[in-house]
Design a protein that fits this description.
23% strand; disordered C terminus; 2 domains; six-stranded mixed sheet; four-stranded antiparallel sheet; Alpha-Beta Plaits
Length: 437
């Protein structure tokens, strides 16, 4: 490796290490803006906070609302921020994308979920690891490049986008449709999701969410033989799923490096089940009716080796079998969301650059993984048609959505070093010497 580059890298790493308190306080400040989704609280306030900081550092800042997307309203505008700064001409653009929305706090906290408490080498609060710590680390990484005096080429972008927790349709999907995640504007994307700072996440499994409704005929509960129970219909469907589908799913394994190991198989979860009358409020009693409707929400996570048509056919085949053999069996299926599996080539430029810097910073070989659930890489690949994209960032994935969520300050500093040095390679400032020096 060129001595000049080695010295510049060492200086950059020292500069980032000196920002340890700054990355912690920035994470704290972001946590204190309660961007809870749903409904989409404080998106504009969070975007303004990020935009003002980056504008002071010379970025061109744009606020882009996801008008017409699910959940967008004047009361809860889907406000995204995209900030860009140009270096010397002739290089490529590296984009750091983080979602600013967090899930509800829930019960069981021993700290203020929106206090951003800093203690024991950690920042605590809802969104600390998922993923305001990653956002803070990426901001500090880019700011360190600007402050270093390194004559860098290309462009650097930072975005704070909304609604990732509910599909990302008002955030990355909306921006991708406008060409903001496609060449020639952007060439490489790093999403600082909490996947451990020595691992690179290449992609994720697919998902089919659907509502299945079995239909019956209402009648008096004392004379159920005069009606048709949609709940009993659904019970038969569930029986077939238990008997036939689950054993088959357990046999299927993917070549994708999905973690944890149980997620390397196909999975199916029933998110909710409701049949008959609505739940009774207060101390009232239900009326005696045969249920004429029963609705089930299924969450089918499928592998890159499986096709969506086959995934659907496996379920629809059982319903058709019941319709042919069970008296008065009627049903309807409604797609709620479809996401196809994605996986970036392990030899892609963004993977090589991150691998090399992880090995330098941590002194060990990085691990490639894939996520059991989806994240915004799906929109960048499918809508933006940009495939040099991975998730890499600080934090422990298992802490996401949990009470007493936290992110380690040392992990944020280390991952900021990796992101900064990888960005300088990907922009073309430093030569790409392959997977290892």
């Amino acid at each position: 490796m060129d001595t000049t580059i080695a010295n510049a890298r060492d200086d950059l790493f020292r500069r980032i290490a000196a920002k340890r308190d700054e990355v912690a306080s920035l994470t704290r400040d972001l946590i204190r803006i309660p961007t809870v989704n749903p409904p989409g609280d404080a998106y504009a306030a969070c975007a303004d906070f990020i935009g003002e900081r980056l504008r002071r550092r010379g970025f061109e800042v744009k606020f882009l609302r996801g008008e017409g997307t699910p959940g967008d309203s004047d009361a809860y505008p889907r406000t995204n921020i995209v900030a860009r700064i140009e270096g010397r001409p002739g290089g490529e653009c590296v984009h750091f994308n983080s979602h600013i929305d967090v899930v509800e706090a829930g019960q069981g906290w021993t700290v203020d979920p929106f206090g951003g408490e800093i203690r024991d080498g950690r920042v605590w609060g809802r969104g600390a690891c998922d993923m305001k710590g990653g956002l803070a680390a990426s901001i500090v990484a880019v700011e360190a490049i600007l402050e270093s005096g390194i004559p860098w080429t290309g462009a650097l972008e930072i975005s704070g986008t909304v609604d990732e927790e509910s599909g990302g349709f008002g955030g990355v999907a909306h921006l991708a449709r406008q060409g903001l995640f496609s060449p020639p504007r952007v060439h490489h994307v790093i999403i600082p999701e909490p996947l451990d700072p020595d691992r690179v996440c290449l992609g994720h499994r697919g998902v089919w969410w659907a509502e299945i409704e079995t239909k019956g005929r209402i009648a008096h509960g004392s004379m159920p033989f005069l009606g048709v129970s949609a709940i009993r219909h659904m019970g038969e469907f569930l029986h077939l799923v238990e008997e036939r589908v689950y054993p088959e799913l357990a046999k299927r394994r993917t070549r994708m490096p999905v973690v944890p190991d149980g997620a390397r198989a196909s999975t199916l979860n029933f998110n909710s089940l409701h049949g008959g009358q609505a739940e009774i409020a207060g101390d009232g009693l239900p009326s005696p009716n045969v249920a004429d409707s029963c609705r089930l929400i299924l969450d089918r996570r499928f592998l890159i080796e499986e096709g969506l048509d086959a995934v659907k056919a496996e379920i629809l085949g059982l319903l058709e079998e019941l319709a042919a053999g069970r008296p008065d069996f009627r049903y309807a299926v409604r797609d709620l969301m479809v996401v196809h599996p994605v996986m970036t080539d392990p030899g892609a430029p963004v993977v090589r650059a991150l691998d090399r810097e992880i090995e330098r910073v941590f002194g060990r070989t990085p691990k490639h993984i894939a996520s059991p659930g989806t994240y915004d890489q799906k929109h960048i690949a499918r809508i933006g048609n940009l495939h040099d994209c991975v998730a890499y960032g600080p934090g422990i994935l298992e802490l996401a959505h949990q009470p007493d969520e936290w992110v380690g300050i040392d992990d944020m500093v280390a991952s900021a070093k990796v992101m900064a040095a990888a960005a300088l390679t990907l922009t073309g400032t430093w030569p790409d010497g392959g997977a290892r020096f």
